[in-house]
Amino acid sequence: VKEAYKKFDQAITNSSMHTHLNKMTVPLTKLCNSRTPLFRVRKSECILKQREELFHIPFKNRHLVSAQRFSVSGLPCLYLGTSIFVCWQEMGKPDFDKLYISSFISDKENSNIRILDLGYNLTSALRTKPGDLWYSFEQGLGDDYDLNNDDFMDQINDKISKLIAWPLVLACNYTKDNEHASFNKEYIIPNLLMQWISSDRNKNISGISYRSTKILNQKDSDIGINVIIPPKIENIAETNDTHCPVLKKILKVTNPVSWTVFSTLEATPNLYKSNFNFQTNNPAKGWIEDFDESLVEYYENTTFRKVELLIHQMMKYEYLR
User: Domain of life of the organism in this record (predicted)?
Assistant: First the structure.
């Protein structure tokens, strides 16, 4: 294992890949802010009431942390999702009556916290929004367009970096062959990448965002993104802290709420009152094969979305103490 990590570290650190990965980082505040919170879900037989219960697994219980796609065994990382739906999917679709949810936001002063963006595909990586690049194949760029323009070059460099890193993205997103296996070969590369990010040598990248492999029909939707942030602490075994002191300072959290109780609210979220987002067209009868996959297209109509908005609107955000 040590030899494998050594070779992986050398392959990234001693090549241009290191530079490209750093160019692919985005501020945590772009993914997690007062307009677009992240969510965390936990299944529990007992009632959960405290923010700490929806944070990462306490360091004293790190023996409970098994290896997951980006989780190294024994390293309690904080897993978050862009929607309650993706969190529920990642947990294996547990019963809703045992589900507890917290919402997370980060303030703008934490824009120095960078997340490696692996949540793209080739289509989204190469897509250019209308008006971003004023280019005509007949007229060229024109005399007034400066090729040295910083915005123009940033976009080009971003696309180049994402193309070069695409094999790494693919290697981190293989679907498991055996859902209940103790060892998953599909987790080898993402585990090595997480070890590299968590190492003392790497101070510029604080976490990873990636697309869930549990939702295949995402169509560039933002509801299927996972964010994982490892603890930034030198020696977990010797610390007296229960949770990562760095993460406690950069993320505000709501107290957990029960899905069963919260979904009974008849209230309409303010966002729906000011900006009606429901899709009013009904799907054609008989064309849906897998409803979970089709749910992406009708997400704004779901109770998942309603609960997300109500939690964000009604619950109080506070730092862990």
Answer: Bacteria
